[in-house]
Design brief:
The complex is a heterotrimer of chains A (about 260), B (about 290) and C (about 325). With about 260 residues, chain A is of the alpha/beta class. Helices cover about 40% and strands about 25% of the residues of chain A. In chain C, about 70% of the residues lie in helices and about 0% in strands. The radius of gyration of chain C is 20 Å and the shape is globular. Classes of the chains: A alpha/beta (about 260), B mainly alpha (about 290), C mainly alpha (about 325).
Chain lengths: ~260, ~290, ~325
């Protein structure tokens, strides 16, 4: 079974800094893969190249058998790869419901030609989208906030909205960037349950960058470790835990100045 | 003929360069695109005219007076308008719109109190120096010498004085600079002072080169100056210098008959904009500008 | 002061307000909804007006064919501007749009054979004749006037302009309530987030720019019909700034705030003609034109500093940062 996502020798520089320096690994379909590593290891940058917001200087990224490293961000999203940010990026000046309604791909009403030439198809899609959005809001417990501006939501609520938005988009692969950062213990449990349910019920694959090693060890099937822009090791959580190189990398960084 | 155009281009270009540095210093520090800058140049030129003509002072004295007046104006405006906007945490858009409102007020005030009549400095328009195939008028010569001296002085100040380094560092990262204990307000005042001085000087030199000018000429200069700033990469003083020179030369040289008959001279400003657009297509952040880190 | 009592004068103010409503509506679509810093809006007005006038005078086309083509030309102008420039960062884009509008004005001034040059449309025809493009429009206007039973052509023009403005306002308002409009608002809010939702941000921006240009083109047509003659100097950046001021006055991001802003602007502009008290009386009447513009500039400044959300704007949705 070939991997859903293949990262092959990706390099991305910022000036003289090699943020990602030849990283390679695979992500298997329907798995939860953790991406860990010390600060500055290049994890967020790598996410950026996969999601299309950054172009790699060299290397290939193959998703579902097709190269996506040259595609702009919006086309990567349309291909089924969705990325979230550490601080949930909601549209603050729009309502919670609108935030979700926007997460529909291929809505004819979103094109000018669609409004004019396919008014009925557009209205139908709009009804379906609204229904789906309301279901998801109920699922994450935000339905009472549907008509409020997303900017009024708390941090935890925004994370839930983010999650609902991911579900709306019906992706194949979700890139979660530190989903547990700054999250209360109760919400943590809730988020983990949602992630596991999504994998189970919808067959979604997850690639998660996370500093909370307990979470990663608990949730992930496979762990990829990055250090200084390269993949140091990859394998099951148990193996990684006792891997000497990994321990060295973390210990070494723990004594180095932060940033 | 080509050489003549090159020299003309350097003259125009150095005026743009000086003005562009003035715009860039303020942008680097305050993220403010000062749309009123052209009218500040006109202000400097008109004050200089007033001192040079009706008050019969020499051009140098008049120019210094003009520069000082423009610098004073810049500081006054910072106190009356920009500082209040800063304290309200106004964003880029608000500042841009405010500078447009300001430009309107300034120019109309110049027209109201100064009249739209064209004026000239007391320079002999017929005195011409000949160097090989190139003819330079007295006005052009004064302009190019003054400009060259200023460019060198500005470049040195930026590179070697503490203030210069502070301004450049703050253009790079203002929040960091504040944390590092730099007196932000003082740096801002220095930036406005310098911007005003440069605007005044650029206005005088432009007035010299064009021979006759009226209060509206500031706006006509503004666009090539902005183009120079953008070309060089907004916020970079060195980029502004380079951008100004490149655009000035490109504008003049494009009219050379060797380029398939050359561009119609009335379209020179269009050449500047085209150069800018093409350059931005290739390098969207300008020569020395910083790319947006996604 | 008896001009103030003249209905004809107020009809004129109303027509100008109507034309500016349409122009500013275009800007509202571009900036208020898609977040584009277009400072060259007047260029599309010029393209619309000139295309129509040139086709009627030089090519002998019917007005009813030339006018829509003028509007289309304006829209194409929007595409021409947007394609190379919409990916630029906001401040560069703003500067390039001003440059674009000045280039259009330059071309209009210098290509005398095509546009009549600095003399304006009067020179469009053959040498020695004063060209006129307004023939068909005048007869249309007369027919409307007759149907409505009005006694003055000014009142008729007022009705025609505002009827058109209201139709355009309604169409825009409806368009913005569609899913398409929702995407525009998302782009205005956070375009990278919109891209991560699969939206082709560039395409939407281009559409907004072109539609705003179309509206400006229509405003240009009405300008041409109202004044029956124009020249490149009628399309200076000042008009774009007036449109921005209208947006600031009424409120950014609200379609129905535009006519309110335009009416207030019209009143300010017209009203300041009659400031006969000190300090205005110190100046000669032609100098008062400068004073009026100073007042307008001061109003822009005050609005930006004190009430950036405009008279009707929603502070929470305020886009002026």
């Amino acid at each position: 079974m070939s991997a859903l996502l293949e990262v092959q020798d990706v390099v991305r520089r910022f000036g003289s800094l090699r943020a990602v320096d030849g990283a390679s690994f695979d992500v298997q379909s329907n798995s939860i893969t953790g991406l860990i590593g010390p600060n500055g290891a290049g994890k967020s940058t790598l996410f950026g190249t996969i999601a299309g917001s950054l172009k790699p200087d060299s290397g290939r990224i193959v998703f579902d058998g097709r190269r996506i490293d040259r595609r702009p961000a919006y086309r990567v999203a349309r291909s089924g790869v969705v990325r979230t940010y550490q601080a949930a990026r909601v549209l603050t000046r729009m309502t919670v419901l609108d935030n979700l309604m926007l997460a529909s791909i291929g809505h004819p009403g979103e094109r000018l030609t669609g409004i004019v030439l396919r008014p009925r198809g557009s209205r139908k899609r709009e009804r379906e989208t609204r229904q789906h959005a309301e279901e998801l809001l109920a699922l994450v417990g935000l339905d009472s906030h549907a008509r409020e501006y997303a900017g009024t939501l708390s941090g935890g609520q925004r994370k839930l909205l983010d999650l609902a938005r991911v579900l709306m988009l019906r992706p194949s692969l979700v890139l979660l960037d530190e989903p547990m950062a700054g999250v209360s213990p109760t919400l943590r449990v809730q988020l983990l349950e949602h992630i596991l349910a999504m994998r189970r019920e919808r067959g979604i694959t997850f690639l998660i960058v996370e500093h909370d090693l307990d979470f990663v060890m608990q949730a992930a099937d496979r762990v990829v470790v990055m250090n200084e822009g390269r993949v140091l090791a990859a394998g099951e959580p148990q193996e990684i835990r006792s891997n000497e190189l990994v321990i060295d990398a973390y210990l070494g960084k723990a004594h180095a100045p932060a940033g | 003929m080509f050489l003549q155009l090159l020299v003309n281009g350097l003259v125009t270009g150095s005026v743009y360069a000086i003005a562009a540095v003035g715009v860039s210093l303020v942008y680097g520090l305050l993220r403010l695109v000062n749309f009123a800058y052209g009218d500040m140049m006109a202000f400097g030129a008109l004050i200089t005219y007033g001192v040079n003509g009706p008050w019969h002072q020499s051009l140098i004295v008049a120019a210094l007076a003009g520069m000082a007046a423009t610098a004073a104006l810049a500081l006054l405006l910072d106190f009356a308008l920009w500082k209040p906007l800063r304290s309200r945490r106004a964003g880029f858009m608000s500042m841009f719109l405010a500078s447009i409102g300001l430009a309107l007020v300034l120019r109309q005030a110049l027209l109201l109190f100064g009249s739209a009549q064209p004026r000239s400095f007391r320079v002999n328009p017929y005195r011409v120096f000949v160097l090989g195939s190139v003819r330079i008028s007295e006005a052009q010569l004064i302009a190019i010498v003054a400009a060259a001296a200023t460019i060198v002085v500005v470049a040195l100040l930026l590179a070697y004085t503490t203030t210069g380094r502070v301004l450049r560092a703050m253009a790079d990262d203002r929040s960091l600079a504040a944390v590092a204990g730099i007196n932000v307000e003082r740096a801002i005042r220095i930036a406005w002072l310098s911007s005003g001085l440069l605007a005044g000087l650029a206005g005088v030199l432009a007035g010299l080169v064009e021979y006759s000018f009226d209060p509206n000429f500031g706006f006509q200069l503004l666009l090539p100056v902005f183009a120079a700033v953008v070309l060089g990469g907004i916020g970079s003083a060195y980029g502004a210098l380079a951008g100004g020179l490149v655009l000035g030369v490109a504008q003049e040289v494009s009219t050379w008959s060797g380029f398939a008959g050359g561009v119609n001279p009335t379209y020179k400003p269009v050449v500047a904009f085209l150069v800018l657009t093409i350059a931005l297509l290739i390098r969207p952040q300008g020569f020395f500008g910083r790319a947006r880190i996604a | 002061m008896n001009v103030l009592a003249s209905g004809s004068f107020w009809a004129f103010v109303g027509v100008v307000a109507g034309i500016y409503t349409i122009l500013a509506l275009g800007l509202q679509v571009q900036f208020g909804f898609a977040g584009l810093l277009n400072f060259g809006q007047v260029a599309f007005m010029a393209i619309g007006a000139y295309t129509m006038a040139i086709l009627v005078v030089k090519e002998g086309w019917s007005m009813w064919l030339a006018a829509p083509l003028g509007v289309v030309a304006a829209g194409i102008g929007g595409l021409v501007l947007g394609l190379p420039t919409l990916r630029l960062r906001a401040d560069y884009f703003a500067i390039v749009t001003i440059a674009f509008s000045e280039i259009i004005r330059y071309v209009a001034t210098n290509e005398t054979a095509l546009t009549g040059g600095s003399q304006g449309t009067i020179a469009l025809g053959s040498v020695g004749t004063a060209a006129q493009y307004n023939g068909q429009w005048s007869s249309f206007e007369a027919r409307v006037q007759h149907t409505l039973g009005f006694s003055s052509p000014d009142a008729t023009m007022l009705v025609i302009v505002w009827a058109t403005a209201l139709i355009l306002l309604t169409l825009t308002w409806l368009a913005l309530r569609t899913p398409w409009g929702r995407v525009l608002r998302a782009i205005r809010d956070d375009e990278d987030a919109a891209a991560s939702l699969g939206k082709n941000v560039f395409a939407y921006k281009l559409q907004a720019l072109a539609l705003g240009a179309v509206l400006a083109g229509i405003a240009g047509l009405f300008y041409a019909w109202q004044f029956s003659f124009f020249s490149p100097d009628d399309f200076q950046p000042l008009l774009t700034f007036f449109a921005w001021m209208i947006l600031l006055l009424g409120g950014i991001g609200r379609v129905w705030a535009v006519p309110i802003g335009a009416l207030v602007f019209g009143l300010i502009f017209a009203g300041t003609r009659f400031l006969n008290f000190a300090p205005f009386s110190w100046f000669a009447s032609d100098e008062r034109a400068y004073l009026r513009l100073i007042i307008i500039g001061l109003i822009i400044l005050l609005l930006v500093v004190l009430r950036p959300q405009g008279l009707l704007g929603n502070k929470r949705e305020m886009v002026l940062e």
